[in-house]
């Protein structure tokens, strides 16, 4: 019997990971009634945005840890206001244990994908044998990639790429070298090579150099080649930015 | 401790082999045990400049392929007892060089307690040049005062910091010295050649030595005597200064100014 069903679907489900924006409710005081009133008002003001919106509850800004019954009343207050709490935000190990007792996942903060601390995993495993794999939170909805810093000269023929972030070079960039960033580029030194900011299309990215002698600058694919540098820019501190389709290159005034 | 020094440049014809020969000789003159290896497989030159081309029986490739021992292949210099030359093969191409083979030869030189091993790199950035620099502890980058040579040297400096064993270990790459050769004070004064300041600014490194362009370099090469042996040659003296600076001696730069012409030469042309 089951063999025939299997022919109809090769698998019943697929697990996919993706990133979504989600409301984050930062709780400042433990007062379920006031919370419900406050949220009711907000939902009535912007029902399309907030009605039935999924929400992460952040307990990290309270001055004390809360117990499970208190947490349940808070979650009920949120539900009554018309929003859907789906997870707790990552906080202390106590938050993890609380989340477990509430049957809610813990979602990461803003920096790195969060994992349960070994200590909590052990205590959970002791309590009811939960498997570590199941407890790992999904990737965070906010990520921040640290600026890439490079202190050595970028030599001719070298290519430096700062993925998903800004690039800071505290040395010179030689002719024939290429510095690329998905964000902005700062060169504290002579920029004689090529600089390509906003490589993935970020039009608000900018290029800064304390000594401008570039062969080429590009922002979000909009580029300008300097066969001969304008005398008012050559060797000067310069910034480049994009306005519409126009790439501006101007001297940085002090 | 054996120190491996690569002499490299990127561009050809700038004076790598001349510099290797004089550097190796200068180190040996200070009673260090020195081996100089020609990595320019297929285009051997070093043995000519060292004046031992008629004594080459086995070469670097023979040692790598274990057709000869290192002892058999090392040629002792006829002027200095502590200087040895390992010639390149003229009949093979550079594909005959292998990384393991090069490493084995260098290890054996270490065991034989050589103080310095000078690796004379071929031009370009391909296999021969890559293997010449790969195991280096220090680099001497030879550059001429002209734009294309400086650009190539910049590329080589980039490779020294990334495509070498030190670079791959992430300890900042191979420390490099810049040596300017074929320096022509008159042409620099006329603005036809890059000045030393220009070169230092482009490369972001200070210059260890400047070798003036001089006929004695050509004569010495043709005679097979490294120019550092010639005390009457400005180039030879400049190489002597260079070796001294490697040992931390403070020697002021010389031969950088335009030589004054005598009245007779000015009148009759010179």
What's this, in brief?
With 254 residues, chain A is of the alpha/beta class.
Total number of domains of chain A: 2
How far apart are the first and last residues' alpha carbons of chain B, in Å? 51 Å
* Main β sheet profile of chain B: 8 strands, mixed
The SSE string of chain A, one letter per element, is HEHHEHEHEHHEEEEEEEEEEE
Give the overall shape of chain A, derived from the CA principal axes.
elongated
Kindly state the percentage of residues in helix of chain B. 40-55%
Under the CATH scheme, which architecture of the largest domain in chain A would be assigned? Answer: 3 Solenoid
Low-pLDDT stretches of chain B: none
| Largest interface summary | A-B, 15 and 14 residues
DSSP summary: helix tally of chain B: 13
Instruction: Order the strands across the largest sheet of chain B as they lie in space.
Output: 3-4-2-5-1-6-7-8
Radius of gyration of chain A: 26 Å
Structural write-up:
The complex is a heterodimer of chains A (254) and B (270). In chain A, helix 2 (32-45) runs parallel beside helix 4. Chain A has 254 residues and is an alpha/beta fold. In chain A, 28% of the residues are buried. Chain A is 25% helix and 27% strand. Chain A is built from 7 helices and 15 strands. The model of chain A is unreliable at 1-5, 110-116 and 128-138 (pLDDT under 50). Chain B is an alpha/beta fold. Chain B has an 8-stranded mixed beta sheet, sandwiched between helices. In chain B, a hairpin with a 6-residue loop joins strand 3 (75-76) and strand 4. The longest helix of chain B is centred in the middle third of the chain and has 16 residues, at 147-162. The radius of gyration of chain B is 18 Å and the shape is globular. The model of chain B has no long low-confidence stretch (mean pLDDT 92). The chains are: A alpha/beta (254), B alpha/beta (270). At the A-B interface, loops of A face helix 7 and helix 10 of B.
């Amino acid at each position: 019997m089951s063999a025939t069903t299997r022919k109809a679907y090769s698998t019943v489900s697929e697990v996919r990971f993706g990133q979504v924006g989600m409301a984050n409710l930062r709780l400042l005081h433990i007062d379920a009634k006031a919370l419900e009133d406050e949220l009711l008002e907000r939902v009535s003001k912007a029902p399309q945005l907030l009605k039935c919106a999924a929400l992460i509850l952040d307990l990290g800004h309270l001055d004390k840890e809360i117990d499970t019954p208190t947490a349940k009343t808070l979650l009920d207050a949120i539900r009554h206001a018309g929003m859907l709490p789906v997870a707790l935000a990552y906080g202390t190990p106590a938050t993890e244990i609380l989340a477990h007792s509430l049957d809610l996942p813990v979602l990461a903060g803003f920096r790195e994908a969060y994992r349960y601390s070994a200590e909590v995993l052990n205590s959970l495993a002791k309590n009811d044998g939960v498997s570590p794999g199941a407890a790992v939170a999904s990737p965070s909805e906010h990520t921040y990639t640290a600026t890439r810093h490079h202190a050595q000269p970028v030599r001719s023929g070298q290519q430096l790429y700062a993925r998903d972030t800004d690039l800071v070079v505290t040395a010179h960039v030689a002719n024939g070298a290429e510095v690329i960033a998905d964000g902005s580029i700062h060169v504290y030194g002579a920029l004689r090579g090529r600089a390509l900011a906003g490589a993935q299309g970020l039009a608000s990215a900018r290029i800064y150099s304390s000594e401008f002698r570039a062969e080429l600058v590009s922002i979000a694919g909009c580029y300008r080649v300097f066969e001969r540098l304008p005398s008012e820019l050559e060797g000067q501190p310069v910034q480049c930015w994009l306005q519409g389709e126009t790439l501006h290159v101007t001297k940085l005034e002090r | 401790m054996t120190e491996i020094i690569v002499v490299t440049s990127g561009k050809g014809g700038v004076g790598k082999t001349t510099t290797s020969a004089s550097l190796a000789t200068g180190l040996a003159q200070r009673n260090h045990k020195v081996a100089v290896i020609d990595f320019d497989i297929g285009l051997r030159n070093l043995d000519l400049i060292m004046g031992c081309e008629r004594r080459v029986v086995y070469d670097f490739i023979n040692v790598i392929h274990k057709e000869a021992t290192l002892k058999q292949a090392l040629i002792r210099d006829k002027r200095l007892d502590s200087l040895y030359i390992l010639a390149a093969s003229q009949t093979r191409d550079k594909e005959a060089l292998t990384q393991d083979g090069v490493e084995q030869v260098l290890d054996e030189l270490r065991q034989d307690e050589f103080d310095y091993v000078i690796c004379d790199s071929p031009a370009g950035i391909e296999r021969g040049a890559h293997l010449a620099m790969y195991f280096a502890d220090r680099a001497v980058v030879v550059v001429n005062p002209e734009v294309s040579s400086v650009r190539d040297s910049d590329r080589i400096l980039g490779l020294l910091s990334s495509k070498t064993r030190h670079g791959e270990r992430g300890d900042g790459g191979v420390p490099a010295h810049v040596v300017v050769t074929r320096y022509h004070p008159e042409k620099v004064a006329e603005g036809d050649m890059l000045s030393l300041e220009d070169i230092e600014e482009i490369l972001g490194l200070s210059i260890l030595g400047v070798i003036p362009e001089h006929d004695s370099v050509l004569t010495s090469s043709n005679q097979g005597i490294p120019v550092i042996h010639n005390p009457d040659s400005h180039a030879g003296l400049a190489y002597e200064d260079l070796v001294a600076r490697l040992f931390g001696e403070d020697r002021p730069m010389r031969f950088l100014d335009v030589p004054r012409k005598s009245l007779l030469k000015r009148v009759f042309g010179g």
